[in-house]
Task: inverse folding
């Protein structure tokens, strides 16, 4: 059902196979109203979206007989993959709906949606743990009954994960759905997180679920399809995500851009080119009749979201999802808080990060000492052992690998018995770099600025430094005379080791 082509961090470019074709992930899933949709589904497909989501509950209430007879694809006039929301959103908004879960499940089977979702009870945001647990228990009972009675007709049933800001409930919900046999999962209730700008809680919720999901099972994220959050969601492991934001914002004359939303009246220029921005200036859209203006803004918003998804895919393909996510996290102060969540879970993110990348990684600031490729190398150095008694540590030269550089060859000539000397380089991010493993990725595959870094901001360097000296029995260490960064760590060299300066 799901095959992975490329990965970086927990993000993947994959292929989802459905009854109506293939879907390349990460994929944005536009919400389509089954009755009042003003932008044709055909147009949405032309823009590049090969899966949409519509509301099965509304369809049942308005078009039940017709939908059962003709199927959901003819109802919304869309010939690719369709996901249906069973009414969970209405439950979240109004507390309940006038249909029982088994009846809704049968309806979703009858209309032959490609992705079906049991009628769950979303936990939303702000519930006590006790009440949230009751909602989780209810959802799990419904899901168990639904998966037991499903037909083997090629439909993909998605298990809705509930628990909201209670990570232990999210974990339990996830594990139980996997035990039931769901081949795809969806993380519920992020809309209220988004509306409250609780991006950090959203990130923690994704992590709580994703750590318990096998790589073979794709993860959907309900209601979170803004360009601001897409990179974060993908980096943490979400494969698909839906939203009606493109239309909801349009109804209030709000334009979606890659770094936020802006009122149309505030724009003199559109930030990128598409069929809407190439035909109209912002002021010309403002002069349109309301209905026509809404549709044009909605189209622009769809193009903007599609462009962001493509940028994220390219970042995965180039192995630069870390850099891209860190850049996007600085687009909003509340989004910036999510960096802490990423840094606290980099060991988890190692699993999907390739051990070698075609392009050099970029290192900017202290947060990059925690990126998975760097920590993998740090762990490698911590295991490094040598019987040599003399160690020389110098700054990493520009030419890499180090052993091919003129500086290294010059340094060797300073020592009479160079073969008995352990030569090392360093940089603030990687830590100590023994010459023997200086060509191991990413020791020779990075680009960093020449600015002076503050040593106290690099605790990972201290970890590597301490482990290196504790596990190897040196009696003499040579350090550069005027290296301010190393001077900070010099005092932490174990007692009994002679400290000498490298002779210029």
Result:
């Amino acid at each position: 059902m799901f095959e992975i082509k490329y990965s970086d961090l927990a993000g993947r470019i994959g292929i989802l196979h459905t009854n109506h074709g293939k879907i390349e992930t990460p994929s944005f899933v536009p919400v389509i109203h089954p009755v009042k949709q003003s932008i044709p589904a055909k147009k949405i497909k032309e823009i590049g979206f090969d899966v949409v989501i519509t509301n099965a509950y509304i369809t049942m209430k308005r078009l039940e007989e017709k939908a059962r007879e003709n199927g959901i694809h003819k109802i919304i006039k869309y010939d690719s993959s369709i996901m249906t929301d069973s009414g969970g959103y209405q439950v979240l908004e109004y507390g309940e709906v006038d249909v029982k879960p088994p009846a809704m499940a049968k309806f979703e089977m009858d209309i032959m949606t490609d992705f079906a979702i049991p009628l769950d009870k979303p936990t939303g945001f702000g519930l006590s743990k006790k009440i949230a647990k009751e909602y989780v228990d209810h959802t799990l009972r419904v899901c168990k009954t639904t998966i037991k009675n499903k037909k083997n007709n090629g439909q993909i049933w998605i298990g809705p994960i509930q628990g909201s800001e209670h990570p232990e409930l999210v974990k339990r919900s996830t594990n139980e759905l996997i035990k039931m046999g769901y081949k795809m999962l969806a993380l519920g209730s992020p809309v209220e997180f988004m509306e409250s700008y609780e991006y950090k809680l959203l990130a923690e919720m994704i992590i709580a679920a994703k750590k318990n999901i096998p790589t073979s099972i794709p993860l959907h994220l309900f209601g979170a399809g803004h360009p601001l959050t897409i990179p974060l969601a993908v980096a943490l492991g979400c494969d698909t995500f839906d939203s009606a934001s493109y239309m909801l914002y349009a109804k209030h004359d709000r334009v979606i851009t890659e770094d936020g939303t802006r009122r149309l009246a505030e724009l003199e220029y559109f930030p990128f080119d598409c069929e809407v921005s190439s035909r109209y200036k912002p002021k010309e859209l403002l002069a349109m009749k309301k209905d026509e203006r809404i549709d044009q803004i909605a189209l622009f918003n769809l193009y903007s979201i599609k462009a962001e998804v493509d940028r994220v895919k390219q970042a995965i393909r180039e192995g630069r999802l870390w850099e891209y996510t860190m850049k996007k996290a600085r687009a909003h102060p509340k989004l910036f808080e999510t960096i802490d969540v990423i840094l606290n879970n980099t060991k988890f993110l190692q699993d999907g990060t390739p051990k070698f990348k075609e392009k050099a990684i970029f290192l900017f600031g202290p947060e990059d000492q925690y990126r998975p490729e760097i920590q993998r190398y740090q762990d490698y150095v911590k295991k490094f052992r040598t019987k040599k008694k003399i160690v020389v540590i110098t700054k990493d030269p520009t030419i890499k690998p180090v052993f091919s550089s003129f500086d290294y060859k010059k340094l060797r000539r300073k020592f009479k018995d160079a073969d008995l000397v352990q030569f090392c380089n360093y940089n603030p991010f990687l830590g100590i770099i023994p010459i023997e493993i200086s060509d191991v990725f990413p020791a020779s595959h990075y680009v960093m600025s020449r600015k002076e870094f503050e040593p106290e901001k690099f605790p990972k360097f201290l970890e590597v430094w301490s482990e290196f000296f504790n596990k190897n029995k040196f009696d003499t260490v040579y350090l550069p005379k005027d290296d301010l960064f190393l001077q900070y760590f010099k005092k932490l060299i174990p007692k009994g080791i002679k400290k000498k300066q490298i002779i210029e």
